Amino acid sequence: MGFATYIAKRLVTAVLLIFVVATLNFVIVHLAPGGPDAILLNNPRMSPEARAAILKSFGLDKPLYEQYILYVGGLVSGKWGTSYFYLTSSYAVIAQRIPATLALMIPSLLLTIVAGIFIGILASRKPFSFADKFLSSFSFFFYAMPAFWLGFVLLTFFSLFLGLLPASGMISVTSTRFELLDYLRHLILPMTTLTLVNLANFSLLMRSSLIEVLDQNYITTARGKGLSERLVFYRHALRNALLPTVTMVGLFVGFILTGAILTETVFSWPGLGLLTFDSIFRRDYPIILGLFFMFSVMIIFSNFVTDIIYGLLDPRITYD
Amino acid sequence: MKTSVFLTIFVLALTVLQASQMAFAQQPKILVVGITSEPEITELNPARMTTTYYTAEAYPNLIGWDSDGKVVPDLAQSWTVSPDGLTYTFVLRDGLKWSDGEPITSDDVAFTFKYLTEQSEFWYYQWTPIQVPASGTVTGYTIRPGAIDTPDAKTVVFHLQAPSATFFIYAGGWSVLPKHYYQGMDLSTQNPDLSTYVASGPYIPNQDLPGDKIVYVANPNYYGGAPHLDKVIFKVYRDSTAAEIGLESGEANFIPNVPGSDAAALSKDPSIQIGTEQDQINVYLTFNFHPKLAGGSVNPVADLKVRKAIAMSVDLNSILNASLAGYYKEANQIQVPNMYYLGKSVTNTSIPNPEYPFDPQGAKNLLDQAGYPADAGGNRMTLTLIMASGGRTGTASSIKMMQLIQSSLKAVGITMEVIILDSASATQRIRRAQPPKDWNMALWGISSSPDPDVNAYYMVSTLGGNGGAGGWNVGGYDNPFVDQLTVLGENTTDLDQRVAIYQRISGIAHDEVAVLELYYQTEVLAWNKMFQGFILGLGNPMHDYWGALKHQSLAQVTLVQETTTMTTTSAPTTDYTSIAALAAVLVIVVGLLAYFVGRRSRKT
User: Fold this and answer.
1) Whole-model pTM above 0.90?
2) With an 8 Å Cβ cutoff, is B391 touching chain A?
3) Which of A20, A135, A188, B453 is the most exposed place for a label (fewest CB within 10 A)?
4) Burial label, A132 (beta-carbon count in 10 A; 0-12, 13-18, 19+)
């Protein structure tokens, strides 16, 4: 009973939150100085008719509040407006870029989680030992690096000096078709960059939560009962220590579609990150608003799911 | 030891992947051009382009320009102008064909002018001598009835109502479009479909992979004969460093827009050739000419003495050298040195170079005279300078240049705050804001081609709605005599008279420091020596740089080595230091992992 009410409540909150965020998106985008007309209407000799016709064709002649009403109506009805630059529905432009971003982010996230948990476990086995310090410093070292810089270092080394891996894109520069081997070769560098940069989020969390759990009374009890160290660690400690990591995974899932703007830029990966980057500079409002809306929904939704999974994993959490 | 086995497998796998890549290496001859901004489909929409680089490849004009700035035939083999300057006749080459095999006729030319006049918000104004206002078109204009005649399939005749000095190059220098393809297509709401694109250049757009590349395929019907390569690919890098890595690793074969400071490093690679083109871009500091700023405070740069003092405080030559690594021409007047009218230079040789000799003491005296004495701390005034990040004036070199100017001005007691904005914000503040604006100076630039009218009109006249929102004369320099001269220049067809008019305008702009000239831009290009035949420096109206990528140049480009070696060039010079470093890193990583694995196994 309590659970159903909780979900219903959370759903209502989530929808309200999405609405608030969508409104904020609209305000923020329009607060940025220099609208699309600064870029579209670049010719000072343009006739007033031409100027008016262009503004009208994109609905930019309407007052802002009317544009806002149209925008909210569009979000609900699925009409996200026409991109000023691509002249097609911004939904179509965004949808076209989603596969490339997923093809980068899903493998990267999986690798980050697995490697992070593994390193966290290794580090927590003997806290403050040399191994722990080394692994934690390793995580911090890359965490502190800007993704674009690390990306360039890897590019220079593996593409330029060694010539082992391609320098950019998702498929070979002369190819126009997707091929698995080709894609995998292109995936290695950006995936490594994203993994190294995000690794610390998981490894340090895993480490600290394991260390905390291993100090709990029930672990002492388990040891006291004469269980083997392996059993204590994997069955009693690890399972409980995974909880915060699950939260972190949930939060990161929300970020999958937001892509990695800097990493995509360095490696010219044709995904959503690049589209976001370009559209902001072009003030292509329908695309920017569409992207922001999608990102907001993803993040709010993944938080929602995380909350529920969290409850399922931890029986102490009640819903009232 | 498991770990090292894994690592070995990993490295082997990479090698196998690399080998398989080479085995599958494409047989077709492909030139990959690495560019740093995405060619949007809108730029292949001939009515909606913000730049013309990509459509200009696809659509030759009636006339072209050679590397010396001389007019040469393109689609038109010959042309005549009537003695009264009112009738222009162009005769097309024989046997011209579109990429789909249809003939290119005078009807296509007439269609292009009407179509773009009515639909293209960007370019319609260049043909004012044959246009009339009309309702129901996107632009509010159409072609005056009877202004264009097509007596036969090869001849097109334009009838002007009054002589125009610019009509010939604006009409001759524009892409001719296929009527059978574009008729009925509303280019203001629709982009053409690349898979069915019909054009006439050596390579025509065929496929667009958004965010990644645009593929052009060879056009066997090109009038200059079938081109030598199978494809030209415009590959997108978002950053010039990434593009340079692309070139050095063999992925890209040609990159334009190389920062001058990187040219030296690239030229060390024996497989890479560096070239330059003197384009027609003029970069300068523009002043706000309103006596008060937006906030009501006094604007010192509205005073000629202050502008002169600023010009004299700057040791331009050494500042340019320090920031542009030698790839520039020091500027001294509003007309670029390679600007001609009918083959005659419009440069005003009486303007000194450097325009204002470096003289900090003289600058201080002028500032004293202007009523800006130094306070106890040596400060006379605080000024604001706005610049855009990105674009041709927003590179790292420009930022360095502004910092050097900042410290030069500090030396005479002028504190200059530099504000760097993204290009849309900068455009808003600098150009579109209503006067009086809230800045004293702005870093600004203009691409001048193809006619001296462009710089007179946009830089120093108020004719383009200037002095306010929208115009290019962003600071509002307002001199009625210059306006009169500019209009006169547009309507004078006599060679010597017209040249004299522009020299006069340049002289006035110099005397009044209408702008502070910085430099004329030099483009640095880099390409792999496997590809030969680029013609550098081809001029073109509205296609202000990358002459080497113009269709006349691309049509000559050949591949002088086998394509299969393309990927192997990715390791051009073996860098033993870095290989040793990698080996060391690998040994350390393997060692550490082995150590941990060992510890774990001891425990269990």
Assistant:
1) no
2) no
3) A20
4) middle
